[in-house]
Amino acid sequence: ETIVPKEELIVSRTDLKGIITYANETFALISGYSVNELIGKPHNIVRHPDMPKSIFKELWKSLETKGSWSGIIKNLRKDEGFYWVYAEISEVIKDGNLVEYKSIRTPISFEDKIKYQLLYDEIKKMNNETTRKVIYNHI
């Protein structure tokens, strides 16, 4: 796990289809990608397989109907590690037109990480999605 520093904000912007148009250095550092590797890629490049598909369906529906969404997300790093964030996504309006989405992500507590991992495992199980396999090695 990569810990998101408390004093840092992960910031990105996407076009209306979720293609990254801006990524700050913190996003690059935490995700393990360079800024250039992120620009032009779908934002789901950092989607962790532990995340239920229904969360992203809800996210897009909320963006379409309310113009914003917020929630807890587990993201996948380039090296297949992970990091947890609280994400706030909102529309960017210019001259009365929706032109892009901006996202600001901040760290969450250890307790929330445990709470949401268990919740997301349960949602995936209810939706018949593949769930994590946890292997314990007893020495």
Index terms:
single chain; 139 residues; 5 strands; globular
Describe this structure in words.
It is a single chain. The protein is α+β, with helices and mostly antiparallel strands and 139 residues long. Helices cover 30% and strands 29% of the residues. It has four helices and five strands, in the order ββαααβββα. The chain has a five-stranded antiparallel beta sheet. The chain is globular, with a radius of gyration of 16 Å. The chain starts with 9 loop residues before the first strand and ends in a 13-residue tail after the last helix.
Sheet/helix structural class: alpha+beta
Q: What's the total helix number?
A: 4
> Which strand-content bin applies to the residues?
25-35%
Tell me which oligomeric state these chains represent: single chain
Describe the main β-sheet briefly: 5 strands, antiparallel
Mean pLDDT: 93
Residue share in helices?
25-40%
Q: Within the largest sheet, what's the order of strands? A: 2-1-5-4-3
User: Count the strands?
Assistant: 5
Residue ranges: pLDDT <50 for 5 or more in a row? none
Cα separation of the termini? 23 Å
Coarse morphology: globular
In angstroms, what is the radius of gyration?
A: 16 Å
Order of helices and strands: EEHHHEEEH
